[in-house]
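ok so dumb question maybe but i'm new to this and my supervisor (M.) told me to 'just get the structure for Hydroxylamine reductase' and walked off. so i did the thing. is this what she meant?? sequence i used:
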Amino acid sequence: MYCIQCEQTMKTPVGNGCSYSQGMCGKTAETSDLQDLLIAALYSLSTWAIKARELAIIDNEIDAFTAQAFFSTLTNVNFDSKRIVEYAQQAQTYRDQLIQRCRAVNPSTDSDHPLAHLKLNGSEIAALTAQAEDFALNKDINEISEEVHGLRMLCLYGLKGAAAYMEHAHVLGQFDNQIYLEFHQYMSWLGTNPTDIDTLLKNSLGIGMMNFGVMGLLDKGETAAFGNPTPSSVNVKPIAGKCILISGHDLKDLKALLEQTEGTGINVYTHGEMLPAHGYPELKKYSHLVGNYGGGWQNQQREFAKFPGPVIMTSNCIIDPNVGNYADRIYTRSIVGWPGVKHLDDRDFSQVIEQAQQMAGFPYSEIEHNITVGFGRQTLLDASDAVINLVAEKKLRHVFLVGGCDGSVGERSYYTEFARSVPEDCVVLTLGCGKYRFNKLEFGTLEGGLPRLLDVGQCNDAYSAIMLAVNLAEKLGCGVNDLPLTLVLSWFEQKAIVILLTLLALGVKDIYTGPTAPAFLNNNLLAILNEKFGLRGLTTPQQDMQQALAR
Ligand code: FS2
Ligand code: SF4
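this is what came out, is it supposed to look like this??
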């Protein structure tokens, strides 16, 4: 096993990366190795998806599958070896179909890509894990420089993040053939184990730029389906009654759950990245969407254990449900998987509803505590003139975007402290699950009534924040880097990696990232990123705040 894709990866004096029998997240060596094999099978599939396009064969079912299956390899998504094998087999089946369809048009069609004819070693897990050794991500680590290895990982993890957003967009009926082509090209290229540093750097930014398009598609899909988010108050305390908790990023699953629970007396609560749902008109119209429960994903074993109803995980981040003893009342959807946990193949939530009816629910209501969400793209753009006026009148000094992932390391208290120390005449934009570090604190309003904490949405809603920055820069006739704006990002998994690549590709400079640097980027690579983009690590909240305000 070798996996180095997330912030909690093992860091040892003899080499970084989870490489024993189990990763820090609980992923077994078997599942991890099978994921390496799945990735190789997807590289093979992408290679033929490109070939097929040369012959005018475009199959969007295969395109969507490639992104979806890739998503299953992200951190805290799928821990079920059997499901990973099924994805790999399906990849091979689709690949073989594409070969046949290409050869039906031109019998001599072939590819010299090293993985073009990868054949899975049967269907037994033992044989496949043995085969997976050939595709370990550190296979040639002693033959290449640390920089090449690090940049390969940067591209791989960026592509994974983009694939996850492609899948989220596809669920909402959004895709783009040009983006699919680019995605397959990056996949196929990465499958050749590239070694040229300039190309690796260039393509990592290319992946970031591609992802900007993907986030735009996702924004379009969400707003077309559920309307433009508007500022909305959300109770974060339980109320008496039977209940279901839904987590992850898939708003379409939530909509189906709300439809199916309407009139049943069951209250629905959002968890984690589902919180922004309360801002969407087509979701908040359901009165039994009563509130948000819990904090960041890393607290779920404690919080789900106490939740008196079933839980649905629609995407990342799931962790071992056996620890909190609730494996019999958690359900996975789509790409999510945990061995022994019930998986729902479609949006029929009847068994979840039945279980909620049988459970006690919350015995009494706690005193309400309301927070505000829903500062999505349109609301932000509508406020841009007001923001410009506030700056001109010296009532708004600086905007801080403090967002990204949450996680469990102690250093993450940095983000709480940073948000707390933002001066009274400054505003905090936030997004992603990292906001749980401070979103229940009281920030008040600026003179004129603009809230000082603006929750933009899920991690992918970084798109809305980017659009606001671009809009403000256009109106002020300056560049994004000239705005009184500082980005303080927190990363944990691969969606955050691709958002960072997107920001760098768009030319955003001087971003602060933490809590620690990715273990796959060595000091030389960090120095390159610092020199080219001003990318910097965290020091102390006070020092970074001072530096940001002095810009
Ligand atoms: Fe948080 Fe986990 Fe949004 Fe990440 S709930 S770290 O996957 O995607 O953010
Ligand atoms: Fe380790 Fe993170 Fe990979 Fe899990 S996802 S095995 S914690 S690097």
